[in-house]
Amino acid sequence: MQPEFFFTTSFLYNFFKQADEDKEINGKLNSHQQEFVYFFESRTGYVLNDGRMKDLMTLAIPRKVIGQPSNPPYRPMDNKSQDTSNRYINTQKEAITNCFAAFSDSFSPAVCNSYRSQYFTPIFSSKEVQENWAKYSGKHSVDIVKDKFYQWTDILAIFDLPSNAIIISDRYIGSDQEKIKNNIIPILEHFSEISTQTVPVIILSSSKAAQERQVYGSSEFNDLTEYQTYLEEWLNREFEDRLKVTFLFLPKRKIKHDRRIFTKFCLLNIPKGLDILNAQGQALEDTEPSIRSVFHAEIKKSQNFLRLKSDVLEVVNASDTLSITI
């Protein structure tokens, strides 16, 4: 099932009016505007007329998309008869909690942040879309060059929307405490900074890799369960009340070879593995991370992200240890 999105006519008017003006001056849309136009043209959802529908229909792209005579991708949302609030704020709030993301200029930054943190539903203003949308669509990623220095916060820049859960999948990362210290802890630090409530983090790793690297049996841990408990206690002490970390050591065949970080909205794939940095933040190899986002301009890439997320959720929820949605 494809996610649906909520728009107000005032947001759409403000965005497309500014985009048209910028195009007239510069000869083209900027990258954020162009990415959003592709996104808007290829998705479905609802539009609430908060007073700007007549003005909106004077603009070419909204008129083409919303004004389709049959099967329009965006259905009109009725104003609640009892909603007498300015710009139908109460109707908007109800719609926002029932959609994947909302686009409205009716809320202050504080209210937008509150919805992102409490309901994991982002509200985007037209100004934010004009200035930052290429980031959310997954257009920009950081190429990692061997021997150069990086911070995980920069690599994870796309992840600034709070998520109701985080899944980290890397067959080998769980079998090396030093690599966990150098990479997993900085990754978790990034997510802890954008979370205002305790968020579950599931780390998938290979039980066979742990056995081959002798992290238990001949070491201080008697078995894999004891080693897993140690890792979870260690990381949950580090991120108490912010993240709830669970390791799942599974048969190698159940974990994709690709090393990925999933949230509700996007995934980051790092081909060379999540252990790419040493203790000083220096890259050990060249690698080109790729991003897939639910907000991607190309609907096929958005659908691919949703499929991959569904696949990894199936693995997690089949473990009999956890049951999560994301």
Description:
This protein has 326 residues and is of the alpha/beta class. It is 40% helix and 15% strand. The chain starts with a strand and ends in a 9-residue tail after the last helix. The chain contains 12 helices and 11 strands. It is elongated. Strands 8-7-6-9-10-11 form a 6-stranded mixed β-sheet. The relative contact order is 0.13.
Structural class: alpha/beta
| Principal-axis shape | elongated
Poorly predicted regions are: none
State the distance separating the first and last CA atoms.
14 Å
The total count of strands amounts to 11
Please give the largest β-sheet: 6 strands, mixed
Mean pLDDT: 91
Query: From the structure provided, what is the oligomeric state, counting identical versus distinct chains?
Result: single chain
Radius of gyration: 22 Å
The string of secondary-structure elements, in order, is EHHEHHEHEHEHHEHEHHEEEEH
User: What percent of residues are in strands?
Assistant: 5-15%
Strand order of the largest sheet: 8-7-6-9-10-11
Secondary-structure blueprint:
Elements: E1 5-8, H1 9-26, H2 31-42, E2 45-48, H3 53-56, H4 60-66, E3 74-77, H5 89-96, E4 101-103, H6 109-119, E5 123-124, H7 126-136, H8 152-155, E6 166-169, H9 177-193, E7 199-206, H10 207-212, H11 224-238, E8 243-250, E9 260-262, E10 266-269, E11 290-293, H12 299-317
Helix pairs in contact: 1-7, 2-7
